[in-house]
Amino acid sequence: MIIASFSRAAILAAAIAACAMPVQAASTAASSASSAGSASSGSVSDSIGASSNSSGGDKRVAAGQYRVIDIAAAPGKPDTVRMTLHAAAAGATGEFTLDVPNRALAQRSVGKGELVQVNAREYGYEFAHADSKQAFFLALEDNWYRELGSRKVAI
Question: Sheet of 41-43: strands edge to edge?
Fold first, then answer.
């Protein structure tokens, strides 16, 4: 169980480090992963709004490209933007909202009309700029997100 937890935590740290930072020396990547996590990731339940054509508050998102059709301040979430994304593929009907901390967009913002690439991952969803494939935000499944929290450990 400890090995499985370590593996999951290691996968998350690597994914967050890859998403949040430009290529840096290996010595700084590990130490920066935990601080990058707060700016470049969030839980699925806090970040993704239910699809407009789903019932019961479903927060599943199909992988693919989505066009940003609206951007506004996220209600009740300071320093966070709410993007409304609509599936870009011909005949696709999926639409959902995504709340992203402003810090996650500090290096490059996302504007209305731009395409965002959504990739389904074992840990949740990766959101990237469609043109560069550079990830800017991770929406982590709640059970994965909980494992990122700092905890006191008695030795």
Answer: 41-43, 135-140, 124-129, 115-121, 64-73, 80-87, 95-101, 48-49
Residue 152, classed as helix, strand or coil, is coil
Predicted pLDDT at 91: 80
| Chain segment 42-101, per-residue pLDDT in tens | 878 888 997 655 555 556 789 999 999 999 999 999 999 999 999 998 888 889 999 999
CB contact burial 97-121 (16+ within 10 A = b; e otherwise): bbbbbeebbeeeebeeeebbbbeeb
d(CA 151, CA 147): 9
Q: pTM for the complete prediction?
A: 0.68
Instruction: List the chain domain ranges.
Output: 2-148
Q: Give the side-chain half-sphere CA count within 13 A for 55.
A: 0
What is the pLDDT, as a whole number, of residue 52? 55
* Tokens read off for 153: 């450990």
Strands 115-121 and 124-129: antiparallel
Angle at which helices 26-40 and 2-20 pack, to 10 degrees? 90
